[in-house]
């Protein structure tokens, strides 16, 4: 395989992994506290939320990849798929919080919503870190889904169009790289995060640096496997 092709694969893997990590930091993740309505975000872990959205993005990217060889179109299709997935989750989560638990979507990290400029503190239940998914969390999460889906689809496109792997093999490798970067991001978040307005978001550059190294190692492993014939044409 030509060195130029291998370099393109390596760059796409690195870029896609870093984008996936950035997407995780933008997602409103609440974990167990959100399940009890005492924190904002989705009541699951960052890894599961990104894995689900990225997987949906890969489905849409794979569909478009069957009819198009445009890296921009395929990557955007993955981004839109992931964005739609998290948007639907956010919608039903807010319906559950509002009409099921009686929680007003309100941020626990800022006094004024940066998007709508609505006051947050007067509506926050004492001894909680907010609840539901206020506007700023929704916008941040949609952006995170878009970026994460774009990164995952970028890896997928490089593996099927440049590395010439089969669709299934490319999908498994892409999800593995995304999962590794999501785990690193989850360790950096340490529990809950609301989005780009959250003070924890300031630590994102450190996580992106670590994810760059992790993605680089993943990319090198794939390149070595391709050059040595360990993987070829989707077969191990």
Reconstruct the topology from this structure.
Blueprint: H1 3-26, H2 31-35, E1 39-40, H3 46-65, H4 71-101, E2 106-107, E3 129-132, H5 135-161, H6 167-189, H7 204-228
Parallel strand pairs: 1-3
Antiparallel strand pairs: 2-3
Helix pairs in contact: 1-3, 1-5, 1-6, 1-7, 3-4, 3-5, 3-6, 4-5, 5-6, 6-7
Strand adjacency order, main sheet:
1-3-2
Structural class: mainly alpha
Give me the strand/helix succession.
HHEHHEEHHH
Number of domains: 1
**How far apart are the first and last residues' alpha carbons, in Å?**
17 Å
- Unreliable stretches (pLDDT < 50, length at least 5) are none
> Count of helices?
7
> Radius of gyration, rounded?
19 Å
What can be said about the biggest beta sheet? 3 strands, mixed
Overall geometry: elongated
Mean pLDDT: 92
Helix content: 55-70%
Q: What's the total count of β strands? A: 3
Percentage of β-strand residues: under 5%
Brief digest:
This protein is mostly helical and 236 residues long.
Can you tell me about this structure?
- The chain has helices at 3-26, 31-35, 46-65, 71-101, 135-161, 167-189, 204-228, and strands at 39-40, 106-107, 129-132.
- With 236 residues, the chain is mainly alpha-helical.
- It has one domain.
- Strands 1-3-2 form a 3-stranded mixed β-sheet.
- α1 (3-26) packs across α6 (167-189), α3 (46-65) crosses α4 (71-101) and α3 (46-65) runs antiparallel to α6 (167-189).
- The longest helix has 31 residues, at 71-101.
- The chain is elongated.
């Amino acid at each position: 395989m030509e060195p130029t092709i291998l370099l393109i694969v390596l760059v796409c893997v690195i870029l896609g992994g870093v984008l996936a990590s950035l997407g995780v930091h933008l997602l409103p993740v609440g974990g167990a506290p959100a399940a009890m309505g005492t924190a904002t975000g989705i009541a699951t872990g960052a890894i599961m939320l990104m894995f689900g959205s990225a997987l949906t993005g890969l489905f849409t990217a794979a569909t478009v990849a069957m009819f198009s060889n445009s890296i921009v179109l395929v990557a955007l299709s993955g981004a839109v798929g992931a964005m739609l997935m998290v948007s639907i989750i956010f919608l039903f989560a807010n319906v559950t919080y509002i009409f099921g638990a009686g929680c007003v979507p309100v941020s626990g990290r800022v006094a004024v919503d940066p998007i709508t400029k609505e006051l947050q503190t007067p509506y926050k239940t004492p001894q909680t870190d907010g609840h539901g998914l206020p506007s700023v969390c929704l916008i941040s999460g949609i952006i995170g889904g878009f970026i994460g889906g774009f990164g995952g689809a970028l890896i997928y496109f490089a593996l099927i169009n440049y590395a010439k792997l089969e669709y299934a093999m490319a999908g498994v490798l892409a999800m593995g790289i995304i999962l590794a970067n999501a785990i690193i991001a989850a360790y950096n978040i340490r529990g809950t995060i609301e989005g780009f307005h959250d003070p924890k978001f300031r630590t994102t550059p450190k996580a992106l640096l670590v994810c760059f190294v992790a993605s680089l190692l993943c990319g090198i492993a794939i390149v070595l496997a391709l050059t040595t014939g360990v993987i070829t044409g989707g077969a191990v």
